[in-house]
Amino acid sequence: MNNKLFHAASLSVLLALGTLAALPRAALAQGAQASPSIYLQGSEARRGTDAITLGGTLPWKDWQRPLWGGQLTGYWDVYASRWTFDGVAGGRAHTTLIGVTPTLRLRMDEGRSAWFWEGGIGLTVADKRYVTPERTFSTRANFASHLGLGVSLGEQRQHDIVLRVQHVSNAGLKKPNPGENFAQLRYGYHF
User: Fold this and answer.
1) Distances (CA, A) of 95 to 13, 35, 56, 69
2) Residue 118 pLDDT more than 80?
3) Tens digit of pLDDT for each residue in 134-154?
4) What CATH number corresponds to the domain at position 181?
5) Contact 105, 97 (CB under 8 A)
6) 19 backbone φψ class: left, alpha, beta (φ>0; ψ -120 to 50)
7) For residue 135, what pLDDT is reported?
8) What is the percentage of the chain residues whose pLDDT exceeds 90?
9) Burial of 109 (0-12, 13-18, 19+ CB in 10 A)
């Protein structure tokens, strides 16, 4: 993927997030958890890599399944992220990536619990490869998988706080494939 195509895709993600934020509340009157959200997420990996992510979620309308006494739902997670890390030539380096992840969320007590588990596997595309003194990604396109534990707060559960672990790698499609693991903290607001 060339840089022009990457920048066009990045602009599309930002426009989609802006459109989500501009939707009127009346169009989203299905309850906070069944409505889109925007979020800000901070991430940290070992060896000095950190990331800041801005994203949005789009729930899978009318899709839910009972599971283990809880309620399983799903959503699309669309985001843009900026990774900052130690560069091979010294100093700090950056890469920007966009991603999309289908995510499943399990809320216990038939969906009434404020607490939830979630997990997903998606795709990311970066503007340049992630190269640090210790790790070198061989591809700009990678998979991102995560597991998380979260809680919904507020009168209508419109605020989500989620602690997640995420692994990013190319799943062995090309060598080297060292992958990177992040600890993440996310705040989301459903509107």
Assistant:
1) 16, 31, 20, 42
2) yes
3) 999 999 999 999 999 999 999
4) 2.40.160.20
5) no
6) alpha
7) 93
8) 80
9) exposed
For residue 4, pLDDT beyond 80: no
pLDDT at res. 32: 73
What is the DSSP code string of 54-104?
Answer: EEEEEEEEEEEEEETTEEEEEEEEEEEEEEEEE-TTSSEEEEEEEEEEEEE
User: Coil, strand, or helix at residue 167?
Assistant: strand
Tell the residue number behind the tokens 């949005």, with chain if given. 56
Structure tokens at 123: 């795709």
Q: What is the pLDDT of residue 33?
A: 72
> By residue range, what is the domain housing residue 148?
3-190
The count of structural domains within the chain is 1
